[in-house]
Amino acid sequence: MSDTCRVIVITSGKGGVGKTTTTANIGAALANMDEKVALLDTDIGLRNLDLALGLENRIVYDIVDVVEGRAKMRQALIKDKRNPNLALLPAAQTRDKSAVNIRQMQQIVSEVKAEGYTFILIDCPAGIEQGFKNATAGATEAIVVTNPEMASVRDADRIIGLLEAQELRNPMLIVNRLRVKMVKNQEALSVEDVQEVLGHSVKLLGIIPEDEGIITSTNRGEPVALTDTSMSGQAFRDIARRLKGEDVPFLDLEERTGILDRLMQLFVGKR
Amino acid sequence: MLLKEIIDRLLGRADKNPRGVARDRLKLVLMQDRSALPASVMEQIRKEILQVLSKYVEIDETALEVNVERADDAVALIANIPIRNVRRDATNPAP
Description:
The complex is a heterodimer. Chain A has helices at residues 19-32, 49-53, 63-67, 73-76, 102-114, 130-137, 150-165, 180-184, 191-198, 213-220, 231-243, 259-268, and strands at residues 6-11, 37-41, 78-79, 86-89, 119-123, 141-146, 172-178, 203-209. In chain A, strand 3 (78-79) and strand 4 (86-89) form a beta hairpin. Chain A is an alpha/beta fold. Chain A contains 12 helices and 8 strands. An 8-stranded mixed beta sheet of chain A has the order 3-4-2-5-1-6-7-8, with helices on both faces. In chain A, helix 1 (19-32) packs across helix 11 and helix 5 packs parallel to helix 6 (130-137). The longest helix of chain A has 16 residues, at 150-165. The longest helix of chain B has 18 residues, at 18-35. In chain B, the strands form 2 sheets. In chain B, strands 1-4 form a two-stranded antiparallel sheet. Helix content of chain B is 45%, strand content 20%. In chain B, a hairpin with a 4-residue loop joins strand 2 (65-70) and strand 3 (75-80). Chain B is elongated and about 75 Å long. Chain B has helices spanning 2-10, 18-35, 39-54; strands at residues 57-59, 65-70, 75-80, 83-86. By secondary structure, chain B is α+β, with helices and mostly antiparallel strands. Classes of the chains: A alpha/beta, B alpha+beta. The interface between A and B is medium-sized, with 17 and 14 residues.
């Protein structure tokens, strides 16, 4: 285990592109690689990350309780039921973004660091207002999540500019919900298209194919990265390895539509 | 799929698939978004242009206009600077 802690904010600008799912899955995958991971839900008032992890019934204290001194950091961090290497600091549900300021958020991050985590992943709220400024304040690296569609890429571009203004240069890019068949039929933007328009300052970290399995796994409260047979799960595990510096080739997403794959699906069940 | 491509090509719309359209629209809109400067920066640009040019010419400050303008496929910074008078010493500026 490394003695340094990496603090990474996961952001997108636009809502609904998969920030929370991405945070939960990269976190779960890193924890399975023996990293000590803390996930921070900074979407105060719109708590979601607890659901993605299936931890919603365990919340006693939240981030605002820590800020306002009602709980110690160690009390508020909820250990994951599957892997004690993974912990969640939940957002407050009954407050709003103004409950925490930038300085307090930086304090929160340093308190989590002091607990000995090697990765802190900050799930950023949608938008570019106070919540975004808070979430990015304590981070030293940034991941931008986008979908291969126009509105989402446009917002990602804006976010990349705002990140640069906060000294978070060269963010990592995740293209989520890629529809391979539509790209092949020239009906939707490809990963290359997205990279081309966003420019060279962003580095591609991962490609997640569109996968109904994400809906079912979120319904169960189990990150898809813990499911061996899922292609999106594999994509998230690959992202975790790349974050740790491994050179992992990108999945050949087209392969899966072949005959062999259909047979595999028959035997393995749903992928 | 293949048939559709052939038909598209015959009708001369090979480049107008939804993917290409999206890519082109996105490129243009991003170029416009990126060129949008905050009002404070525009004001600063205006001031500094004024400062530099005032060394050489007398400018009608109230009529000075600096704008970012967009054409179909390009973005430009356009300045309209009405000159009142050329300064006498401007032709031989101090080193």
